[in-house]
Amino acid sequence: MFANAGVTIRGYAHDTLLESYVIEAHKPHSLDSLVSRHLGRDDTLSYEQVCGKGTKAITFDQVALDVATRYSGEDADLTLQVHQRLWPQIQADAGLTRIYALEMQVSEVLQKQIGEILFDRLQLPVQKKTASGAPSTDEEVLEKLAEDYPLPRVILDHRSLSKLKSTYTEKLPQMINPDTGRVHTNYAQAVAVTGRLASNDPNLQNIPVRTAEGRRIREAFIAPKGWLIASSDYSQIELRIMAHLSQDAGLLAAFAAGEDIHRATAAEIFGVTPLEVSSDQRRMAKVINFGLIYGMSAFGLARNLGLERSAAQLYIDRYFARYPGVAAYMERTRKLAAEQGYVE
Q1: Which of 207, 200, 199 is nearest to 169 (CA)?
Q2: Distance, C-alpha 105 to centroid of its chain
Q3: DSSP secondary structure string for all residues of 50-109
Q4: What DSSP state is assigned to residue 198?
Q5: 49 and 75 in contact (C-beta within 8 Å)?
Q6: Residue 180 — φ and ψ, nearest 5°?
């Protein structure tokens, strides 16, 4: 915050968030949670109490001075109290002391550093900017830059590995049930609006599979002897709903015959037999199948597939020629929305 205002700060002594992270990486590190966990207090003034929430929330500069003073003073006091509880624990362990010192150094290097290195020092092309006007370094930007420059790819790889580490390799061992020696998920029946079950603590529905590292984590999930892990999921559910709503003869026939819908679409668009469809063509057809039912334009499709806009438009035209019922349904839906102000 100071840096954004042009103020350079020197000499940070400690950081309670990093102290907590070094001691208990698997637990939350917000000040509220640290105060509750280490000071046994839940009566502190929260940010929402001061600024409100939702549409009625105000920014901190609009808070009455006496309230802002109390909130800020309490935050500073509690931060010091938490530090006085955590710092002795770190000092008592040479390994933790070394890691904490490293984390403190890293925090200074990280502050606004990726953008500075990529766009100031290396002069890479700015793709888009944040709300404050600074060059964005989000995943979409880095993926685009990684097509032409090596450093963004290294940063993306690091972020990916870091997420695997914090989400799985560090967290899962903490979730082992002491009675069974196994990890058990919770299935929530009344959460997802689509009607599917929601898995949490841990979420077994998004264990990574696309990367080699992710697949190695998947290999850690094994059933007890004599048992199997069963996995079931909707198959191309949005496309089945589209087939039902549009009553498109081609889509209905493909599903009725049990065909691979993406392979069938690829065969139609690229003018080959289903057996001749390559994995790359199937991948492109999958993007087209899902993209077009959500209204993706030729521009969006071209960007997604790395094609010329004219080629993307040709694929869209072929798609709707193959599935005219889908085109008719989408046009009916737009017309109905304009006429009555809603759709069902």
Answers
A1: 207
A2: 27
A3: HH--GGG---GGGS-HHHHHHHHHHHHHHHHHHHHHHHHHHHT-HHHHHHHHHHHHHHHH
A4: E
A5: no
A6: -105, -20
Choose from 82-86, 239-243, 261-265 the range with maximum mean pLDDT.
82-86
Strands 198-200 and 186-188: antiparallel
Residue 266's φ and ψ, nearest 5 degrees, are -60, -40
User: Hey, which of 77-81, 112-116, 166-170, 214-218 has the most confident mean pLDDT?
Assistant: 77-81
Q: What are the beta bridge partners of residue 187?
A: 199
Please compute the mean of the pLDDT values over residues 67-75 and round it to a whole number: 94
- Given a cut of 80, whether residue 131 has pLDDT beyond it is no
Judge whether residue 132 has pLDDT over 70.
no
Residue at 322: amino acid letter: R
Q: What are the φ/ψ torsions at residue 127 (nearest 5 degrees)?
A: -90, -45
Task: Locate 244 and state its tokens.
Answer: 């039902």
**8-state DSSP, 135:** B
For residue 110, the model assigns a pLDDT of: 66
* Structure token digits, residue 333: 């839906």
Residues in the chain: 344
Query: Are 172 and 25 a contacting pair, CB within 8 Å?
Result: no
132 against 276, higher pLDDT: 276
Mean pLDDT of 174-193: 88
CB contact at 8 A, 270 and 264: no
| 303 three-state secondary structure | helix
Confidence (pLDDT) at 109: 67
The band of 3, judged by pLDDT with boundaries at 50, 70 and 90, is low
What are the start-end ranges of the H helices in the chain?
A: 16-23, 31-34, 47-51, 65-91, 94-110, 113-115, 139-146, 150-164, 212-218, 237-246, 249-256, 261-270, 279-293, 298-305, 309-322, 324-340
- CA distances (Å), origin 85, targets 78, 79, 81: 11, 10, 7
Q: What is the pTM of this model?
A: 0.50
How far are the Cα atoms of 6, 69, 127 from residue 136, in angstroms, in the given order? 19, 33, 7
Q: Which of 22-36, 47-61, 87-101 has the lowest mean pLDDT?
A: 47-61
Residue type, 182: R
Three-state SS for 7?
coil
